[in-house]
């Protein structure tokens, strides 16, 4: 297996990425992997890419603009349409690469990236398959599960941050994952355990985004794109997920013409390490082999 550092040009910005190639001769089928809310490529995506390459499938792991080693200012800005443009640019890169098979390109996304993979598959024709893991599928449904009073301090900060953004000022930031007594998007008494699942030892992750994103996320609804996904779609869903609605994810799978759902007895962050990771990545490899390698 070979891993190369590459860059993908997206709307004039360079997105940092890794290209993984099997040791055999190509052209290879390829799966493109995109991250969660505020995630960088070091947050366990290499673990998935390695397993896919071992199955004979090349992998591209990329970072959204404004995050990690990718270009873009201000930093840690979640702009949904820009991230979807980054997905489209990664697909175009894969299709143009001489060592990759343009007819056998799949998408893989986790959490917010899972929603992006669904939307991208609805917009881009000719993809071979899509995997959405613990996916963000319906901002309305996610918002309905939040206590209104708990949202008020974050909403006030988001409105203020967006106003300053229009004036060209630097963002105000909010934690993505935090303890119950912290101002954070996802609060849990098990946050230290969750961070251990998601962030490998030795990796520094800022665990923050510009708070203005909270004004757009509730209106982002990948579920409404599901009926336009023409290729096979696999949804990997945690029954105890409290970050992204498992019920909305099931409805998304049902709405897709070739959708299927696999449910696991786990929460949002169990997917990234341990027994649930081993089970889901095996299921995902089998799905990709079925649709990318078998004629």
CATH classification class: Alpha Beta
Q: How many strands, what sense, and barrel or not for the largest sheet? A: 8 strands, mixed
CATH A-level architecture? 3-Layer(aba) Sandwich
Query: Which ranges are low-confidence, i.e. pLDDT below 50, for 5 or more consecutive residues?
Result: none
Number of helices: 8
Pfam family, one: Peptidase_S15
InterPro entries: AB_hydrolase_fold (IPR029058), FrsA_esterase (IPR050261), Xaa-Pro-like_dom (IPR000383)
GO molecular function: carboxylic ester hydrolase activity
Domain Xaa-Pro dipeptidyl-peptidase-like: 12-141
List its salient traits:
295 residues, alpha/beta, Rossmann fold, eight-stranded mixed beta sheet, 24% strand, Alpha/beta hydrolase, carboxylic ester hydrolase activity, FrsA_esterase, Xaa-Pro-like_dom, AB_hydrolase_fold
A few lines on this structure:
This protein is α/β, with parallel strands linked by helices. It has eight helices and eleven strands. The protein has helices at about 45-55, 80-95, 110-125, 140-145, 150-165, 190-200, 245-255, 275-295, and strands spanning about 1-10, 15-20, 30-35, 60, 100-110, 130-135, 175-180, 185, 210, 235-240, 260-265.
């Amino acid at each position: 297996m070979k891993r190369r550092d590459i860059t993908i040009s997206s709307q004039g910005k360079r997105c940092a990425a890794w290209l993984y190639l099997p040791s055999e001769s190509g052209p290879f089928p390829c799966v493109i992997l995109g991250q969660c809310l505020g995630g960088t490529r070091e947050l366990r995506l290499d673990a998935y890419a390695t397993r896919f390459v071992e199955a004979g499938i090349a992998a591209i792991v990329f970072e959204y603009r404004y995050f990690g080693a990718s270009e873009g200012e201000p930093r840690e800005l979640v702009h949904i349409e820009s991230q979807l443009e980054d997905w489209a640019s990664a697909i175009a890169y894969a299709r143009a690469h001489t060592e990759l098979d343009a007819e056998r390109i799949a998408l893989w996304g986790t959490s917010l990236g899972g929603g992006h993979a669904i939307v991208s598959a609805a917009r881009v024709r000719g993809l071979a398959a899509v995997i959405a893991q613990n996916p963000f599928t319906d901002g309305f449904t996610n918002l309905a599960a939040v206590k209104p009073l708990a949202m008020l301090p974050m909403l006030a900060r988001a409105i203020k941050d967006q106003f300053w953004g229009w004036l060209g000022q630097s963002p105000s930031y909010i934690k993505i994952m935090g303890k119950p007594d912290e101002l954070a998007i996802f609060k849990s008494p098990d946050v230290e355990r969750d961070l251990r699942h998601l962030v490998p030892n030795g990796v520094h992750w800022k665990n923050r985004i510009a708070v203005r994103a909270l004004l757009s996320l509730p209106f982002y609804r990948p579920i409404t794109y599901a009926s336009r996904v023409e290729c096979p779609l696999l949804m990997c869903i945690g029954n105890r997920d409290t970050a992204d609605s498992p019920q909305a994810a099931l409805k998304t799978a049902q709405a897709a013409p070739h959708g299927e759902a696999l449910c696991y007895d786990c929460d949002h962050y169990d997917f990234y390490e341990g027994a649930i990771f081993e089970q889901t990545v095996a299921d995902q490899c089998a799905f990709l082999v079925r649709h990318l390698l078998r004629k």
